[in-house]
Amino acid sequence: MADSTNSPPPLIGIDVGGTKIAGVVIDTSAHAGDGDVCVLTQADRPARPGAAALIDDVAALIDTLLAHVPADCGAIGIGTPGTVDGTTGDVRDIANLSIDHVPLAGAIHARFGLPTVVENDVNAAAFGAARLIEDGTASDETIAFLNLGTGMAAGVIRDGRLDHGSSNTVGEIGHIPVEPHRWRCACGQRGCLETAGSGGAAKRLWPYADPPMPDILAAAADDAHPRHRHAVETRDTIVAAIANALDVLAVTVDPNVIIIGGGMAQTGAPLLDAIRAELRRRAHDSGFIHALNLPARLRLAPKDLPVGAIGAALNAAASVGA
Ligand SMILES: [Zn+2]
């Protein structure tokens, strides 16, 4: 038995989404579980618009979580959309919750008295996924996480730490404007990769099923399906944009491992197979791409764990040394 006095304290992780806020308390004692992470309790509640509501909702969720955990917790980590100030923990421009500015870290720290670290939601999920998929992966490896959610963005981890670059723009790969259809992007450009290679794009391009991606892949694989040809075109458009994003990550970040996550990754193996087939096709045509050996670097994020909330908690601990 491990000496409990030497065990790290439990950690609280919160993942703010556009419609719901998810929370966990995790134990990171050695041999606690997957990647040495054990979820002690989890809960969620609907997200409401406005800064005051967000602070109240996060605090209420933490109260709910703490009611189920007798031990003292060591830190609070929060992953959120919007632009996070890494120094103050303030967040700007959470569009889905109509928030221009919220002093999130300060307000939650004031209520609970625990070190509180706020991080961009994709970065938090990247940190969680990297820990949870560890399959002998050394912590000094470079890991990229490609989030295929409403939009497309990546998080990058080097030597066990998130890479924020000089202005928190590392990984905004969805806004590289090279998609040949030249669709208009919410960012104001045309042809951004996320206008084709994201869950939001798949919903727009295939309004016949929700979630769209499993239906697209099934129809594309079935000659007799009434929308077969359209499904093949749609699949190829989406997968090409994702493969472009993976190529960009490979040549700019050169990660040992690229983890695909976000809502679209819930499609699972059929999506991974389609992406790998496209990468192999490119490798067949190019010795340069072949040498990158991208299909072997791909992983899927764990499907059944709240990766964003777990990553927010782990990142908080890494940031404050809890
Ligand atoms: Zn864009």
Automatic annotation (TrEMBL):
Gene3D superfamilies: 3.30.420.40. Signal peptide: none annotated. Its EC number is 2.7.1.2. One of its GO terms (molecular function) is glucokinase activity. Keywords: Kinase, Transferase. The keyword Chloroplast does not apply. It comes from the Bacteria. Belongs to the ROK (NagC/XylR) family. This is Sugar kinase, ROK family. It comes from Bifidobacterium choerinum. The lineage of its organism: Bacteria, Bacillati, Actinomycetota, Actinomycetes, Bifidobacteriales.
